[in-house]
Amino acid sequence: MRLQFPEGFLLGVSSASAQIEGGEVGSNWNDWYHQGRIKDDSDPAVADDHWNRWREDCALMAGLHLPIARMGVEWARIMPARGEVDEAAITHYRAELEYMRQLGIRPLLTIHHFSNPMWFERLGGFSKRENLDDFLSFAKLCADRFGDLVSDWITINEPNVYATNGYFFGDWPPGHKSFSETFTVLENMAFCHIRCYQMLHATREAMGYSDTMVGFANHLRVFEPENPKNPMQAATARAVEWLFQGAITQAMSTGVFRLPLKNHWKLPKGEYCDFHGVNYYTRSTVTGFADGVGKTARATTSAGRFIPTVCRRSQPSWKSCSSAPSGSRKTAPATIRMPSAPGISTSTCTPCSVPACRSSGIITGASATTLNGSRARVPDSASSMLITPPRRARSSAPANSTPI
């Protein structure tokens, strides 16, 4: 059976460097493993060996006739020490990007996807404002070295998941448990995204390109009160939604920082995304501030449709997750309230249960992407969003919890 999609609708795949590459690269996830903090003992140095088998994996994607693929670059590989650049790593990623383009696969590049070099982590990572220039320097390096090969960019993947798991629950590196530090990390990552958005457009414009598309990817879920008639549960659901995803999505999209986030940099209001990356997995049933997977979420099958249901994660200490397909439509208001950039599904699931996708850990149908201005309607049960036409006016002002 051949799937048919509307014109302009691109069905692709998605991955992250720490998910698939393997190797002892001096990252926070390598360190987390060596601390014995990964409950199932998954070793990120093993992963899918994509670093060595990237040609094979790209050929697999080409064999599936995929027009687009989201991939990440590993900061710890490219900058193994502060101020130091590994040119061999740059050459490796350029070769992969060039090969993808030769195969007719459009790359969508993620700059940060949960993984930090340990030298950055030891400095305090994103919890310290004085460290942010280190990340911005890495992002500028990516723009300079890969900008001729990549037009579509995700600056940061799921800052809400990164901050919540690493700084609130303490289940991910660095293992902190601090309410205030969680929101410091979020506001710092929002600042980094806005600066990266401006930088990527300016850098590629100087190269002579006018097709740059920059966004971020957030994990959006539906928070529903267990009892809709219970006013306390309803109010708590709204509060949790705002704290987990609403505030950070608004800050990164518009430069508007509302409590609990603060705009320490006096960044002006503007439009700081050309698309919204929507990583949707499940709903949460809310009775209090403790978060749980929706009790009505269940695996779904339907003849003639691809419906992602249960995905096993290879990222250290990930659990399985059940997708609640009907909730994907309910996440739409979270992006509709933002500037009218298109919403795209950019989720990453590894490894895949489809045998042909073994080594790159990609799941066909989980990442449905539209990066032009067309309106595409997808099956209600798919983890995807309706696409709205972009408005391209831009501001000229300068482990063992939530799945990704």
Structural overview:
This protein has helices spanning 17-20, 28-34, 50-63, 75-78, 87-102, 118-122, 132-146, 159-168, 179-206, 231-254, 327-330, 332-336, and strands spanning 10-14, 68-72, 106-112, 152-157, 213-219, 222-225, 275-279, 283-286, 310-311, 321-322, 343-345, 367-369. With 404 residues, it is of the alpha/beta class. It has an 8-stranded mixed β-sheet with strand order 11-7-5-4-3-2-1-12. Helix 9 runs parallel beside helix 10 (231-254). It is globular, with a radius of gyration of 20 Å. The two termini are 30 Å apart.
Main β-sheet, spatial strand arrangement:
11-7-5-4-3-2-1-12
Separation of the first and last Cα atoms: 30 Å
**Secondary-structure content class:** alpha/beta
Q: What is the helical fraction, as a range of percent?
A: 25-40%
Low-confidence stretches: 297-325, 348-404
The counted number of beta strands is 12
Q: Assembly type of the shown chains?
A: single chain
Q: Rounded to an integer, what's the Rg over CA atoms?
A: 20 Å
In terms of DSSP E residues, the strand content is 5-15%
Structural shape: globular
Number of helical runs? Answer: 12
Summarize the main sheet. Answer: 8 strands, mixed
- Mean pLDDT, to the nearest integer, reads 79
Query: Topology as H/E string?
Result: EHHHEHHEHHEHHEEHEEEEHHEE
